[in-house]
Structures are given as C-alpha cells and as structure tokens.
Amino acid sequence: MKTSNSLLSSFRVLCDREPARPMFTFVDDRGRDEETITVAGLADSAATIAASLRAWGFQPGDRAVLVYPPGPDFVRALVGCLLAGVVPVPVYPPNPVRLKQDLVGFNGIVESSEPHAVLTNSAYDRARTVGAVTGLFDRSKPSWPRLRWHRTDRCRPAGAPFEWHEPSSADEPALLQYTSGSTSAPKGVVITHGNLSQEVRTNATDLGLGDGTRGVFWVPQYHDLGLISVILSTLAGNGHTYVLSPLTFLQHPSVWFDVMSRVKATHTAAPNFAFDLAVRKTTPAQRAEWDLSALRVVMSAAEPIRAATVDAFYTAFGPTGLRRDSFYPAYGLAEHTVSVSMGGKLVLSLDPVALRAGNVKITENGTRLVGCGRMTKPDGRIRIVDPESLLPCGPDQVGEVWVSSGTKALGYHGLDEETRRAFHARVDGDDTPYLRTGDLGFLHEGELFITGRHKDVIIVNGRNFYPEDIEDAVRDSHPGIRPGGLASFSVSGDDGERLVIFVECNEKKADDELRAEIADAVRRRLYTTHQLACDDVLVGRQGLVLKTTSGKVRRRACRQAYVEGVSV
Q1: What does the CA dihedral 50, 52, 54, 58 come to, rounded to 10 degrees?
Q2: 457-563 sits in which CATH class?
C-alpha cells in the first residue's frame, strides 16, 4: 500500500510537523481535564508498546485482544498494534464481579479470533485476578480462557527506534471488530487498511473536520463509532478530541455539556437515547449556563432516530445557542467500516398501514421517519432489494438495504459461507457485489430512510409490525415505565407468532399490583393504537431489556432470554 494512502502515514506527517500538538484529552467524571496526549507522546508510547509486542512474540498479522476500561491506555495499545502490524481485536471488558454473564461473550470472541495474547492495563488485570480468585470455588461460573495477558502500561522504551509497519496492500487487515449480535456465535468483521483510509478521508470531508475541530465524545471506544469515527479519525489529524467515559455520561449527563460548553466544541455524536436522557436529566437552569453555539455537527447514529426526540432536544437546548441545522443524522454498520449515509435533512410523515405493507405513502399526522442522509463515498451505491426474491424494489417500496463502496469490509473472520452470503450479494443485471445490511428501508429523493431490521419484523395474523413502532406506541402508556426500557419481539407458538413485550419499571421494588397495572396499560395502548393483542407483557427491573454497550436494544437476545425462561 502506498505510504501516502495509509492511515498511519497521516499520523507520521503529524509527528514530523506538529509533535507538540494535543490530540486527545481525557476528562474525569466531574468534567475536568485529567490527561492530555500529544502527537509525539502518543507516537512514543505506541512505539514502546509495538516493540514490546515483538518481544512477546507477536508477528505482523497476529491478533491481539484489547481489554481495557475507558481511557488513554486503550488508545496507546490500539496505535501500538497498528505500528507493529498486529491486528487489534477491541472488546468490552468483562465485569470481574459478574463473569457468569460477561465471560460467555468474551470467550466466544477469543475462540473465534484465535489471538496470540490479550493486552490490558494493570488496573484491569488486578481486578480480573481478584474476580478469578473469588470464583475458584464456584464451578457454575465460566472461567477465563487460557491465554497470556500482557500489561501495556508497564512497557519500557527499547534502546533502538521502532520501525513502523507499512501495510503491504490496501486489503491487509487492520483490525477485527466484533458485531453486537449473538454471544454464542460472534462475528468478527475484518476491516482493512484501505477501508480505514477511505472512511476517515470521507468523514473528514462530510463533517468538515480539520485542524480547528474540537470534538467531545463519550461513545464507547470498542465499537465502530467511537473506535473509528472518533479515535482513528483523530489519529489522522482531525483536530483535538476530548474523551469522556460512557459511564460518566450515563451517571452524569450534564458533564457532556459542561465540557462542550467549556472547550467550545464543534463536533459531537451520540445514539438517540442520549438526547432523550439529556432532556430528562438536565435542568433549564443548567442549560442557561451552557454555550453550545460553536457546535456545527451533532451526529445521531448507532440506533433508530426518533423525530420526537430531535424536536424535544432542540426545544430544550435552544437557550444554549445550539442551532437546529447542527443536527446530523447518519446510518452505518461495522460491516461497512462505519458510515453508509450521512447528513439527513428530511423528515417524512408516512401512512403507517401502507408502511407495514412495505409501501411509502406520505400523509399528514402519520408515522414520522427521520432521513439518514445520502451515500457520500465517491464509489458508493445503495440498492433497495426484496429480501426474499432478491429482486430490486420499485420506487417508494421498502426493502433490504444493500450497499457497496470502498469501505465495505473484507468479510467475517473464519466464516466463509457467511461472508459469501452477506458481502457478495448480487442483483439481477448488476455485477456489483453488495453488502446485505439486514436493515429495511427505502430511498426518497436520494435520501436513505431506515424502517427496521429484517429479522426483527413482527408478523401477526399476516400483518407486519416494526418493533420500534410498537415500542413508540406504549412508551408513555404508564408513568412507571422506565425510559428506554422496552423491547418487543415475537416467538413461535402453536397458533403462529406470539407478540411479547419486555418492560422495565422505574421502581426498584415494584410490587405485583404495579406490575399488573403497567402490563394492563401497555396492552390497552397497543390495542388502541394498532388493534394488536399482546400475548405476554413481562414487567421487571432495569436490566431486563438487554442492550449492547452502545445502548442498542438486543431484541434477539431478549427473545432468547424469554424462551429460556428469564425471571423478573
């Protein structure tokens, strides 16, 4: 691969031209700057880790599982792997005190990725060791896989300068990112250096990134949005990035805005639920103190975007100077490196009955859908295809979203048949190999709209329902329903598909009477809105609705938990 085209080449240029430039500032849970990493500081620490990887027996192409709490040690290890030609496999760190739940997924990733070793820092390794000791006498708990663990914060500089690895071609794997699907059968997406290079370049153009960019982000560092759109984009020279822990945001949402106001942030990004949470957990008095007038891009991505959320957020945060035109809807997935479409401008009101039948019919007071923008990659293309017949859909018809561009990943690691089916789909009369996203949507005036997941569509008595529509209908049916605590799905029964809804309750100790009251309210609202009967409503505490680390509802995991007899 030509040096000028690789992500690391941009970092090398920065090292030569602006070694003292601040790249990342990590912020504590009170919004104070805790540690700033400069270009030279990151290059030096990453080179030290890269040299240690060689000493530990890593060769170019080997894989390393990265297990770190949020913070600078993860960034140093990630870049160290890239400098050494080692393929990083970022994972969410298993909680040492709840290994029974977390280790199943972790062990699945380790088995799938076949790493040379695991990289971590001293703080996490100590916690892991304590957790392992306390579980020695409980044979019901899964155990850590037999692998070597290395603490990268203990690496010491080598005597000679480390020679950076240069990718041999654009198709050389750069990182392995596991999707947030099944824990028992994880899929690792092979993202190449060519994928990363084009993704970062296109994002810089679309988002107006540059030397003057000041980004503030709390999205998890382990997945595509935080990993590539934040960390690796900054590595390429796109401004100064302030990083908060996701836990800080969840516990104290106001800190996000404290920091953005203080540093005059120009860019930020979050899933839809974060904007709902911001409205609920901040006060008018706090908003009056914040100055968000410098924000040019407020990206909403990683989960379905609700028009009502957007309206409420910009109404509540109007006094901060936040402009409505800063809102920037986007759609993407790991299998396409990150982004598919960017910069949505349209909000459509659609006939819900026609939409359930797969047709787009604009009407007043209908279901409101937020557009996710256009494909902006120079070689990119979006097709809407019938997922059953694999034939192209007509205008204003809903189908599966198929995409192709230079950021389409190489495939799933070690899963040849899955790769062939998902990454090399073809439409009649078109030789282009497309990626099947599994998402349903349509194009309107060139803009992409997402309506739901193909596998999540609920079919009851021949009628199609999107889970998001069902959840939207019942979310305010009772004040005891916890915001964001809903998941709807179907299970097979003797008489066909049965509709089930998981509901999280606001009360930590809800009695049977309150649970029954909430369930009854959900059933009545659902029937009133959709003339749909619900076979089972389970009301439980926070945690009943399973989610990914980025906050997306894992409906298939909820379905599996229900089938296995989850207790509430």
Answers
A1: -90
A2: alpha beta
CATH code of the domain made up of 344-453: 2.30.38.10
Domain boundaries, the chain: 3-235, 344-453, 457-563
CA-to-CA distance for 94 and 111, rounded, in angstroms? 15
Q: What is the pTM of this model?
A: 0.88
Its sign, for the CA torsion 476, 478, 479, 480, is negative
Please state, for a pLDDT cut of 90, what percent of the chain lies above it: 80
CA 228 to chain centre: 11
Please write the tens of the pLDDT for every residue from 357-396: 899 999 999 999 999 999 999 899 999 999 989 999 999 9
The confidence band for 36, taking pLDDT boundaries of 50, 70 and 90, is very high
3-state helix, strand and coil shares in percent for the chain, rounded to the nearest 5? 35, 25, 35
Alpha carbons 176 and 558: distance in angstroms, whole number: 26
- Domain 3-235 classification at class level: alpha beta
Q: Which residue has the tokens 């990718």?
A: 167
What angle separates helix 253-263 from helix 272-281, to the nearest 10 degrees? 90
Q: List pLDDT tens digits, range 228-247.
A: 999 999 999 999 999 999 99
